[in-house]
Every structure is written in structure tokens, then in C-alpha cells.
Predict the structure of ROK family protein.
Amino acid sequence: MTHTRTTRLERGRGALGPALELVHTGRAPTRAVLTSELGVTRATAGAVAAELEALGLITVDAHPTAAAGTQGRPSHRLFIADQGPVVLAVQIHADGYRVALVGLGGRIVATTSGCGTIPADPARILSEAVRAGSALLRDSGRQCLGAGLAVPSAVAEPDGEALNPLHLAWPAGAPVRALFLQALADAKVPGVTEHVGFSGNDVNLTALAEHRHGAGRGARDLLCVASGHRGVGGALVLDGRLHSGSSGLALEVGHLTVNPEGAPCHCGSRGCLDVEADPLAFLGAAGRTPGPEGSLLKQATDLLREEYADDSVRAAGELLIDRLGLGIAGLVNILNPDRIILGGLHRALLEADPERLRAVVADRSLWGRSGGVPILPCTLDHNALVGAAELAWQPVLDDPLIVLEGEHAG
């Protein structure tokens, strides 16, 4: 290790991580704010910012200018480094996969996807997705610091097993994290270390991404409900932290009953949100047969956004809104969140008729008679991927000097 690297390692790790997280989440746009948030002197904040800049993680505006009409010395602005390191994010869904390179700040640098039937052996699709991600890395020339995986299943901790991949042909308990690590090693993804190979449920990761970078930013207790390519999931951020339960299995909201006489569900019950308020349910209610091209989610959201004036489409939308509202109301009565965000098809349903959904939730929940909780659409593109990236970025946020270790390993 060079003298410069040794010197950096000796500077103390305490303030670097909190400072990087403040810039990463947009809470410290300037050095003055960083000083205040860290509770340190201006000189210390300046040194911390300079160290993060030397690591190639952020840039500091060298020549700050004051805004028109303001007084006092302008503060140096802090930015995510344009050509800084990335992590590899992989999402598996019922219609294929998507991979992305994601920088700090939740910025997607490059992305690609593949569609088709998901094989029963998860190793095959994970290998294909990782190879696609490896090609993105080679083309980008960026340093890779880790990788994260989002899957449409509850993921048991600490072993990373997909316990109930109901909309995939995978066996219950598939060891997706171990298979992901193997795929990364086989593809010789740069930066593969013990910091690589994090995995999680796709809606949990959607909530994590939106809480740090999107519609959930600033919420203390955030409820996220989303329908992806198939099924319905939920996630909860409590007191600013993702709540995954004792072993990663909390908040399986897709199996709330909203129509007792409804369709059979994969879980063995009937009329669950999972089969009553997902893209396939919407297409069926609208009298449309799913086409062979494009994902079910895209087909459903395109129909909802482009043809809502059609009577059959509107009726289907209202039916799903009523079912969704009933499920959300029950969750609100139990969880008492201060904000609700909706993703996937549910985001499109909210945008199509926001007043109807809010009225159903208000009518069916106690808080609706005394004020209400904001119900907002998710705002990030590919938020489950961004959430998978957050898993991989977390060790760097905890200790930014991992960057040096990655350089040394490379």
C-alpha cells in the first residue's frame, strides 16, 4: 500500500461515512450544511469534504458564487463525482430481468434488460443478467464497488434464500444470494469482494430507494405498496429504517384479502391483493388479453394511461382502485404511517384517479375522519434497481475508505 493510501487510512473513519451519506441522500448540498449536520467546525467539515473528493466520490465547488440578493460568504457546493465509482444492480422479475450501473445519489449510469420466460433454475437467469451487467461495466470503464440483487420474493436473512417466489418457477428456498455471488465470480466482475452479493425483496428495495432519493424522502414512517410485473408487495420504513422483521419476511401485504369471493391465490387463500390488484388482474378486468410482446406491467400501465377514457378500461381501473384502497386502509389502521407511496401499476392507478383512491382509503380507515395521510406516487425510475444498489453502497457509506481497498485489489 502506498504512503498516500496509508496516510488516508490513518486519518480516522468516523466522520467520512456520515458525511458521504448526507451528500448521497441530498441532505448536504453545501459545505455549510455539512458543517451543521455533522456538528463539527468549518475546518473539520472542509477536511472531510476534501478527503471524500480525494477518494473520487464527490466534487467540491472550488469557486462558489453567491445567489442574487444574498449576503455573506457563499458556501462551497458539494456534488456527486460525475465519473465516480458505481455498483452493479440486478432485478429479476416475472417477465425477465433488468441490470444497471448505479452511482452515488441513486443515479443510474447505464442500464439494459432482457425479457422472456424465467427458467426454473435461478442460476441460469442470474448468470445471464450478471453477464449483461459485466458488459455494461466493461463499456463504462468505471470502478465497481459492489453488487445488489432484487427479487420478487421474501428473502430470508441471514442466508439470502428466496422463500416464496410465487410468480417464478423457482423452488421455494432457492439460495439466490449464493447463486448471485457465484454468477459474479464466474463473470469476473471487477470489485468482487466480501462487500458484494447483497440481495432483497424488490418492494422492500423500492421503499428504501424512494425513502433515500424519491417520494419518501423525509418521511419517518413510510408505507410503500407496489405492483410490479406480477403480484403485489409492500414495505415499511419505521423511524427512518427499513423494517424487514426478525428474518426479512415482514409485510407480505399481497396476501391481504380484499375480495372474499375472488380469484384463488398462490398462497392458498382467495381474493388476495396479489391476484386482485396486479397487472394481470387489470388486463382481465378490462377484457384485454395479454399480448406476447412487452411485460405485463408495461401493457397494463400503457392501457391505463392511454385509454382511460374507454368505458371498460375506466371500469377496470375503478375496480382495482377500490380493491387497492381497501387493502391500504387496513394497513393504515394497523401501521399509522405518516406517508404512503405507490409504485408500479398502483402508481398509474393513483395518477388516473387520485381522488377516488384517497376517498376509499379515508372512508375505510380511522385517520380518514380526522385528517389523512398523504398518498403519493413513487418518483424514481427503476426504483427496485436503485434499492438493490443501495444495499451495495451501504458498506461504502459506512466506511468510504473501502474505495481504496477496491483500488488496491484491482
The domain at 219-379 is CATH 3.30.420.40 (Nucleotidyltransferase; domain 5). Residues 5-12 have pLDDT under 50 and may be disordered. DSSP finds 15 helices and 14 strands in the chain. The two ends are 12 Å apart (CA to CA).
